[in-house]
Amino acid sequence: MGRRAYWCLCLVLLLSSGCGESVSTVTSSGSIIIPSTAVLNQGKHTRFQVYPRAAGTKWEIVAGAFSGYVSANGTLHAPLTLTDERWITLEASNGSAKARATVVLKPAPVEPADCLAPGQPDPRDPSGPYISYEELPEALTRVPPSYPDPAREAEVSGTVMLQALVCACGEVSDIRVAQSVPMLDQAAIDAVRQWVFRPALNGGEAVAVWVHIPIKFSLH
Predict the structure, then answer these.
(1) What DSSP letter does each residue of 88-136 carry, written as one string?
(2) How confident is the model over 44-88, as pLDDT tens digits?
(3) What is the pLDDT of residues 122-152, one digit of tens each?
(4) Are β-strands 209-217 and 158-166 bridged in parallel, bridged antiparallel, or unpaired?
(5) Could you tell me where the DSSP H helices lie in the chain?
(6) Range of the domain at 9
(7) Burial 133-171 (b: 16+ CB within 10 A, else e)
(8) In this structure, are 48 and 85 located in the same domain?
(9) Residue 124 is assigned to a structural domain of this protein
(10) Does 141 lie in the same domain as 95?
(11) Are 82 and 179 in a shared domain?
């Protein structure tokens, strides 16, 4: 592609992406991300594209909010929960070619559908189709439970088995108790709600799935 045709393509992409988004700065390698800046409500998703396109492009969050996930096709799943850091820096790389984009996270109401990948059936629907995936979620942050004082004084121990819905952004949305220890259930739930995962992947794209998580309480 000639240099003139390349910049014509960039201008067309800018105009089609909306007046509220700006053209990315061209890096020394010549790569750009469209859009280069975006404002995204918490829990929502949007897709970025890198030009020139190349097979094997790697997307990652390189700075900013800890949670959230960017899939292999450039779809960013914003976190359901916001921290004090209200921005994310994305990077697309392929060999020596790299480009970055900045996303500002905006507080907004979170809906149940925000947990899901684009077009994904809801795993919470018992009559819905099976959600296929190739890679299980991987826990990146595990928060240990606090042993409730009444349970400790009563010498209650055991394992609470939870089912947790890990969203496409890597956060936990819904939790069910599959195996109960009545005095310990809530402590287990409170801990797992704070866990952060790399989400389940299907073809490199994030999907929301249920996972089983055993939480063990031992007095010794």
Answers:
(1) EEEEEEETTEEEEEEEEEE-----GGGGSPTTPPPTT-TTSPP---SB-
(2) 999 999 998 888 899 999 988 778 999 999 999 999 999 888 999
(3) 999 999 899 999 999 999 999 999 999 999 9
(4) antiparallel
(5) 3-17, 149-153, 185-192
(6) 3-109
(7) beeebebeeeeebeebeebeeeebbbebbbebbbbbbbb
(8) yes
(9) no
(10) no
(11) no
The rounded distance, in Å, linking the Cα atoms of 35 and 33 is 6
Residue 120 belongs to some domain of the structure: no
Residues linked to residue 197 through DSSP beta bridges, in sequence order: 139
φ, ψ (nearest 5 deg) of residue 131: -90, 110
The pairing of strands 196-198 and 138-141 is antiparallel
Tens-place pLDDT, residues 155-208: 999 999 999 999 999 999 999 999 999 999 999 999 999 999 999 999 999 999
Query: Which amino acid, 165?
Result: L
Rounded distance between C-alpha atoms, residue 37 and residue 103, angstroms: 6
